[in-house]
Specification:
Elements: H1 10-26, H2 32-50
Length: about 50
């Protein structure tokens, strides 16, 4: 699973990690197409939170 680096901002630091937990749970049952979309969105959040 993609690891999310906490941002300096406390809110953004908590949000991606919460999304990661939700995504990891969702990926066990969502269709592959949806899973790929969610991973792309998660990757985008990771980039935004670490910049």
């Amino acid at each position: 699973m993609i690891s999310v680096q906490p941002a300096a901002d406390g809110v953004m630091g908590e949000f991606p990690s919460t999304v990661t937990v939700a995504m990891s749970r969702s990926l066990s049952w969502v269709p592959d197409g949806t899973a790929i979309t969610m991973l792309v969105e998660l990757a985008s959040l990771t980039v935004v939170s670490t910049v």
